Every structure is written in structure tokens, then in C-alpha cells.
Amino acid sequence: MLRVENLCFSYRAGEPVLQNVSLEIHRGEIVALIGQNGAGKSTLARHFNGLLKPERGRVLVDGRDTAGEPVAALARTVGYVFQNPDRQIFHDTVAREVAFGVQNMGYSREEVDRRVQRALAAVGLEGCAGAYPFALSRGQRQRLALASVLAMEPPVIILDEPTTGQDYRESMEIMELVDNLNRRGHTILFITHDMSLVARFARRVVVLCRGRVLMDGPVRQVFSQPDVLGQTFLRPPQITRLAQSLEAYGIPGDVLTVEELYRHLLELRGSREKRAASM
């Protein structure tokens, strides 16, 4: 769905933000894009919906070169949810906000209403259609921004720091919604600094460092290389680091969740009890 070939980009001459970035994101994947502040994560993501155009190299969206595609056309394929929802909310009611993009796509009023209702139901805001958007909580505004994207039904959804400013419960609600969208066939790319979210929801992780791809692979593989990941001043989640500290006792170092560690501990205890009984 998304292909990057030797992408280079600078905001100002002589200061490259992306340097020869190449990667592919396939249909149906859920991929985390991580790296320290200034690594180029948002800059890369904004090339996928045409907000930025390559200085050198190519970006292809479902086989189409973004250099020749307007943002409005790419929006049918790639939906982008900004880190700060207040930067993309501008209408005076929740329903009108969600309807805006669909109306611009030329659908009938009946189809617009249907999509608005379905999108609001998907994010749990069906009772807020007439509300003023900025009267909503931060978490609700994040879901509103996502609903506005969902209403256009793009096959690819990009979320830039979707849980910023939200508590644990709100973060889990957003990410479980994103996970459900992926299970229903959407290709998902999300940017985050929260490694526990990467461990729980991503199937693959791309690590950017100083505008280059440092690592790209399954989450377990990436988190099993803490020294390399440390070049980006990021660390695996706490539960993975705990497991890595217990490798000498037979615990795998690629554990991603508490439940997984608990299962390994039970298996380890069971095997030891079995050995003791046989002696």
C-alpha cells in the first residue's frame, strides 16, 4: 500500500530531515513508527498523504506516485489523524465536522448521513452529534478526529501520537479501536513514543534515527536489540527489560506483555517441579 524509494527531504537547504529512506508497508499491516524527537517520523508520515512532496526519491500510495497527486485525491486512500486534534477540527458541531470530508467527496446527503452515523458509532460518540467539538474532552476530540477520517473510509490510516495527553483508560480505548480497524482490513501506521503500546498493538516496527531507517522488523526482533535501539534514546518496555534481566534463569528476552511473562514463569516453575519430582 505504501512504498518509499530513496526518499530525501529538507525543510531548509543543507539540513536534511530524511536521508535515503526506503521501506514498504503492505496491505493489512499494523506498523509502529518510532524514534527520538526530530528523527523525521512525522515528516515521513506526511509524505503519504501528500502534505509534503519528496525532494528526491519517490513515494507511492497504492502504486500511485504522490508527486503528481493532490492531497484531496490521496485522502481517499490515506487518512491522517494529527497528534493534536485541535489542528484539524474547525466546524461548530461534531456531526458537521465528521461530514466535511465526505461532502467534499461528492456523496449524496443520505450517504453522508449514513457515513457520519457509522463513524461516530465506531468511536463511541454517537450521542455527541450536536455537541460543540471544543466542549469535548481531549480524548473525545481525538476520537472525533479519527471519526472524520473513518467517514471517508480510506484503506490506510495514519495516526501521529494518537494517545498524547490521554490517561491510560483513554489510551487503551483509542488503541483498541485502532486494533479493531486493522482486524477489519485497514492498513495502520501509528507514531508513538510509548513502547508498551508498540509491544501490545504493533506487529512490526520501523525505527528512524537522524532521518534514516535504523531498524525495521517484527516487534520482538527489534526489542531484542536494546543496544541498537538505545541509539535513538528509546528503550524496550519495562516488562521486556525485566524479562531480559531474567534470561539467565530461562526466561526469553523477547517477552512483550505481563501475561506472556507470567506464562513463562509458570512454565519454568512447572518444569522445575517436574525435574524435582523425578529425582
Summarize the structure.
The protein is of the alpha/beta class. The chain folds into three domains: 1-77 and 154-229, Rossmann fold (3-Layer(aba) Sandwich); 91-150, no CATH class; 237-279, no CATH class.
Please give a handful of descriptors for the protein shown.
single chain; 279 residues; alpha/beta; 3 domains; 4-stranded antiparallel β-sheet; 10 strands; globular; ECF_ABC_transporter_ATP-bd; translocase
Q: What is the CATH homology-level superfamily of the largest domain?
A: P-loop containing nucleotide triphosphate hydrolases
Outline type:
globular
Distance between the termini: 57 Å
Strand order of the largest sheet: 6-7-8-3-9-10
Number of helices, where a helix is a run of at least 4 consecutive DSSP H or I residues: 11
Mean pLDDT: 92
Query: What is the number of beta strands?
Result: 10
The sequence of SSEs as H and E is EEEHEEHEHHHEHEHEEHHHH
> pLDDT below 50 for ≥5 consecutive residues: which ranges?
none
Helix proportion: 25-40%
Strand content: 15-25%
Q: Any guess at the CATH architecture of the largest domain? A: 3-Layer(aba) Sandwich
Number of domains: 3
Profile the largest sheet. Answer: 6 strands, mixed
| CATH-assigned fold name of the largest domain | Rossmann fold
For the record, the CATH class of the largest domain is: Alpha Beta
Q: Provide the gyration radius in Å.
A: 21 Å
What would you call the structural class? alpha/beta
Main location: membrane
Keywords: ATP-binding, Cell membrane, Membrane, Nucleotide-binding, Translocase, Transport
GO molecular function: ATP binding; ATP hydrolysis activity; ATPase-coupled transmembrane transporter activity
Protein name: ATP-binding cassette domain-containing protein
